[in-house]
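Troubleshooting entry. The earlier prediction with aspartic acid gave an output that would not parse, so I re-checked the input for stray whitespace and re-submitted. Clean input:
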Amino acid sequence: MKRRLILLAASLCLALAVGAGAAWAFPEAFPVVADTLVAAAAIAALLFILPKRLALPMQIFVAMIGGIVAGWGLALAGQQAFVIDYLGIFGTLFILLLKLVITPLIFVSIICGVAGIGDVRRLGSVGAKTLAYYACTTAVAVLIGLACVNAIRPGVGRESLREEAAAARAEGADEARSWGRRVQDDMLPKIIQNPIMAGQNPLAIIFFALFLGAALAAMEEKAAPALAVFRSLDKAFITLVLWIMVLAPVGVFALMAKAIATLGLGYIATLAKYTLTVVFGLGLHFGVLVFLLCPLLGRVPAKRFLRGMAPALELSFSTSSSSATLPVTIDCAARRVGADENISSFMLPIGATINMDGTALYTAVASLFIAQVYGLHLGAEAQIMVFLTAVLVSIGTAGIPGGSIALMPIILAAAHIPVEGIAIVIGVDRFLDMCRTVVNITGDSVGAVVVSQSEGAMGAGGQAP
Ligand code: ASP
């Protein structure tokens, strides 16, 4: 306690000294320096007051609530720009650190997973079950989405949204970027980036890793040296993730505050019915996965699953990225819930890339909602088009924040819905992105449990983080 007090006091003094020096040397940059220091002091205070006795999931949860309160309170006090531009730096930093590990982790863990499954016939059965499970659950998700939006009809009678959305979009487009925003958008991503596989398409990496893993499996004991290297690298990446996860409460706090400050509560209220329809559909699908599939096919009670996956679920909610959450998802599914390690290492990286139940459901609801706002009546044929393209788009969507928005025009164009209608839903996209990402990783993890069970490889789980 005493050491922490001294550390806090020392970092605050250092921050003040740097700030005073900078204000004296560069008076015109003073507000920027002051904002950065205030943000750093807020984070230091958060770290200080966060009870260290709490387990990590609970710490993340407390940080999440703290972030919501801070984001809302500061936005009410007119400090929205401070939250987004300066507090946001810590959220960006956290996501970038996680991203640093993703690509090599996908590569190495798929190789270890495929080679670990060993017997090529067993690999075939796990592969076939994986694809069948992913295809069926995604189809169910889209059907749930279509049923909800057709039953609730959130867009009917809300035609006024069209102009409002266009105005909000124009406003945000050409504002000058602050120093904090430039740090988040330009500086940090240039420094914190994995040098080996930067910018690689994850599908290409998965494809290569699958083949290399299968070749190593076929070589049997001759592959042992290479496999030993990959296995120890796999452990090293997981260690790296655990280190980064120590910063999770800070990252989650900053990300939540930024999300709430960006969205504001007023705009959400205008789009409440639409938001509720999506959340209701996502909730239904989440229920099917966790309370039906998991206990019935995976033989894992919902409580054990939810408790084991809690850190990953919270992280996916605050990062809106199934890719960034992937290392934690693998760790939770295998060690805490008890899914087979090899099957998890094989299925989850693939799932994070191609299996997005929440995204599929969301894009279907959003498309029909836009059609309703435009007063279009979509018949069976157009809805089948939405169904098919939503499934395809969810496969192609990158597991990053807002990944599916970039592909939405494909669905809209296929069903002859005006593409500019995206502006109508963009205002609440971030919040719904958080919710759908939770469902995305839940779909993947329940899959790992179900397939592990069907292969007779389910463990006891229950290991602490
Ligand atoms: N953010 C989602 C994910 O990472 C993708 C999306 O639907 O935009 O899973």
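This one parsed fine. The longest helix spans residues 80-117.
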